[in-house]
């Protein structure tokens, strides 16, 4: 796991809390309108059906009140910028749990999840430590990771169903920034400037550091393409060929660094 040496970006707690709720409500409204045939359809996530994906999203939101109900760990073990690099180790457990969720009544599942979430998080401190399976983590940091889960899986739902579920701007911004910062941790340096307007700009990759004028090595893409690249939903060469990624300079090739998380 790459060490989180860079200073972690600060996030506005109130905005992150609102963003998690807003994106979950966006998904809830869309899922409530899906029929049995759509719910039984495939997704790009292996053998998961749309129903299983929807159940997984509810579980991702429910993880917050569920962990708040557990005893608080003694000390923090996982920093925010560590999280993207450890998630792949839990893939098997996550898949098994998701397949075991009772998802015959998704509207009911989402309603219960939202009720418990709002009740338990209302007075919870940002500094409250949660016993996340990868290590104890601050509530404020864990909520930023929920924006990644919700936004990425909203994109999965849209891809599977043809819907146009909206992305809360703050949720999309936090997701974009965390994944951009993770790249800077994985490949520290200042030779390449990665731009994901309007939310993030980071420098990465070892080599001559740029200080003035136009950087010699620049990568630019949009937020949705970036999160798809960062999570392995798509590949560098494919997005470059489709002109959804612009890359200039001899070092502006991120293929070997992606994905950041699976």
Care to describe what's here?
This protein is of the alpha+beta class and 262 residues long. It folds into 2 domains: 13-167, Four Helix Bundle (Hemerythrin (Met), subunit A) (Up-down Bundle); 173-257, Nonspecific Lipid-transfer Protein, Chain A. Helix content is 48%, strand content 8%. It contains 10 helices and 6 strands; from the N terminus they run ααααααββααβββααβ. Strands 4-3-5-6 form a 4-stranded mixed beta sheet. α3 (50-68) runs antiparallel to α7 and α8 (169-186) packs across α9 (223-230). The two termini are 14 Å apart.
Uncertain ranges? 1-5
Biggest sheet statistics: 4 strands, mixed
Trace the largest sheet across and list its strands: 4-3-5-6
> What's the SSE pattern?
HHHHHHEEHHEEEHHE
Any idea of the CATH class of the largest domain?
Answer: Mainly Alpha
User: From the coordinates shown, what is the CATH architecture of the largest domain?
Assistant: Up-down Bundle
Instruction: Please identify which CATH superfamily of the largest domain we are dealing with.
Output: dinb family like domain
Tally of helical segments: 10
Strand content: 5-15%
Alpha-beta classification: alpha+beta
SS elements, strand count: 6
Please report the distance between the alpha carbons of the first and last residues. 14 Å
Brief rundown of the structure:
A hairpin with a 6-residue loop joins β1 (129-130) and β2 (137-138). The protein is 48% helix and 8% strand.
Keywords:
2 domains, alpha+beta, Nonspecific Lipid-transfer Protein, Chain A, 262 residues, 6 strands, Four Helix Bundle (Hemerythrin (Met), subunit A)
């Amino acid at each position: 796991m790459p060490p989180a040496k860079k200073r972690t970006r600060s996030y506005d707690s109130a905005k992150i809390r609102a963003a998690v709720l807003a994106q979950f409500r966006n998904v809830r409204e869309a899922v409530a309108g899906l029929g049995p045939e759509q719910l039984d359809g495939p997704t790009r996530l292996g053998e998961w059906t749309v129903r299983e994906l929807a159940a997984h999203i509810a579980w991702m939101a429910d993880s917050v009140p569920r962990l708040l109900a557990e005893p608080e760990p003694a000390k923090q073990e996982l920093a925010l910028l560590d999280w993207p690099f450890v998630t792949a180790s839990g893939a098997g457990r996550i898949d098994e749990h998701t397949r075991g969720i009772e998802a015959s009544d998704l509207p009911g599942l989402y309603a219960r999840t939202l009720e418990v979430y709002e009740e338990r998080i209302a007075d919870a401190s940002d500094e409250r430590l949660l016993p996340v399976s990868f290590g104890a983590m601050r509530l404020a940091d864990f909520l930023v990771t929920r924006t990644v889960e919700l936004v990425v899986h909203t994109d999965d739902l849209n891809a599977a169903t043809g819907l146009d579920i909206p992305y809360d701007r703050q949720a999309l911004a936090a997701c974009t920034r965390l994944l951009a910062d993770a790249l800077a941790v994985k490949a520290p340096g200042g030779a390449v400037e990665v731009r994901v307007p309007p939310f993030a700009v980071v420098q990465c990759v070892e080599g001559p550091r740029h200080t003035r004028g136009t950087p010699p090595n620049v990568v630019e893409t949009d937020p949705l393409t970036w999160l798809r690249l960062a999570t392995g939903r798509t590949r560098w060469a494919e997005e470059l060929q489709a002109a959804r990624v612009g890359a200039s300079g001899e070092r502006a090739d991120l293929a070997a660094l992606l994905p950041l998380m699976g």
